[in-house]
Write a structure and sequence with these properties.
The chain is mainly β. Helix content is 7%, strand content 39%. It contains three helices and 14 strands. The strands form three sheets. Strands 1-12-11-3-9-8 form a six-stranded mixed sheet, with no helix packed on it. Strands 2-14-13-10-4-7 form a six-stranded antiparallel sheet. The longest helix has 7 residues, at 41-47. The termini are far apart.
């Protein structure tokens, strides 16, 4: 049975609630989901339209110093736009697969519509290079400040871990309240090595910026 985490709680990803080694970490799916709070008022009821929220899942791979050692490179696309952090230790919508092939983002869901996971990050924890000690999972609302969208408007946001056999290991749910007003990014959780195994911690730390790079800065070498 999956363990429902509260903010600040930590579990061993390989063990169930009885302390038994039951989960296969050869490939773990980190699923993220959310619902946009329904708009009230006459116009909302009349037109039944809901604004689109583009929440982006991001992963930082950290070394033993708690830093991103490889920030990748800056490349130029055919349309002239620059892409930063390409092929480095940050997994995001413009660099979806790590060069090692051991962690990748499945795709960018621009609306959050439907049930289940809205975005997924897949990681082969058992095969992940030993130089990576921790993975930080971040979610940011694209152009949240411009569109005046924030986590106070989000319901049923969650992050969960599912093992290679499709068994849900753990889930951390976080719904928007007044404390989330104006917050456009979130450090949702982290997975980290501990005594030869992997642990998972629910964090739920919000940030005002809608740019995950602002969240990344403290994790980089100056």
């Amino acid at each position: 049975m999956a363990i429902n985490l509260q903010k600040g709680q930590t579990i061993n990803l390989r063990k169930n609630d009885r302390g038994e080694d039951v989960y296969d970490l050869s490939q773990v799916t980190i699923g993220l989901g959310w619902d946009v709070r329904k708009q009230g008022g006459f116009l909302g009821r009349l037109f039944g339209s809901e604004p689109e929220y583009d929440l982006d899942a991001v992963a930082f791979l950290l070394d033993s110093n708690g830093k991103v050692a490889n920030i990748g490179q800056t490349i130029q696309r055919h349309d002239g736009k620059q892409i930063v952090l390409y092929q480095g230790d940050v997994i995001y919508f413009n660099s979806m697969r790590h060069p090692s092939g051991q962690i990748w983002l499945t795709g960018d869901n621009r609306t959050g519509a439907g049930d289940g996971d809205d975005e997924q990050i897949i990681v082969k924890l058992d095969q992940l290079d030993q130089r990576y000690e921790k993975i930080v999972f971040v979610v940011s609302i694209y152009q949240g400040n411009v569109k005046r969208q924030h986590f106070g408007m989000i319901d049923n946001a969650f992050i969960r871990a599912v093992d290679a056999r499709g068994k849900e290991i753990t889930k951390f749910s976080l719904s928007g309240d007044a404390s989330m007003n104006g917050m456009c990014s979130m450090v949702f959780a982290e997975a980290y090595r501990h005594n030869g195994d992997w642990k998972f911690r629910a964090i739920g730390e919000p940030y005002q910026s809608d740019n995950f790079i602002d969240v990344l800065v403290p994790y980089t070498y100056k």
